[in-house]
Amino acid sequence: MSSAEPAAGDLLAVYLEKRPALVRFFTARLGSSAAAEDLVQDIYLKLASAPPDVGSPSAFLYRLGYNLMLDRVKQQRRAAARDGAWRSLHRSDLGGEDLDASPPVDQAVADRQRLAKLMRGLEHLPPQCRRAFELHKFDGLSHSETAAALGISRSAVEKHVSSALRKLLAWMDGDGR
User: Which domains, from first to last, does the chain contain?
Assistant: First the structure.
């Protein structure tokens, strides 16, 4: 192509001519040839929605690329801030090293198995005993509130909860499958 810039309306021709220069320009600013290639490709995609007639197609391409680059940098900063906020809420660190608060996989599996065993043990409790235990331990009701819900005395609730705990502990320690 000649060194003279194509007609103002032929934005695609200017893009094709300036593409290598655009890649070099944005590589210098972004510090990455891959990021520059992506950005120059985005310029190409934006050309479809560009106005048909621009005064200086070359200047338009550089301005479009620069604006896309700024948008990308802002987006990356927002993502980094969001990720940092999430990390600070869900992770702990010691001396700059992340510590994962979740239990090891084998511990999590063992805990799930113990919970499943406990839930099977609940099925073996007498109905009134089980209901008192569930209301008190799972629903968080006090002994008095549980007594009112079941229509029994507070001491009966205490005995049911105590009995349930003893039976469940025996179930968990024994071979309750």
Answer: 11-94 (no CATH), 105-172 (1.10.10.10)
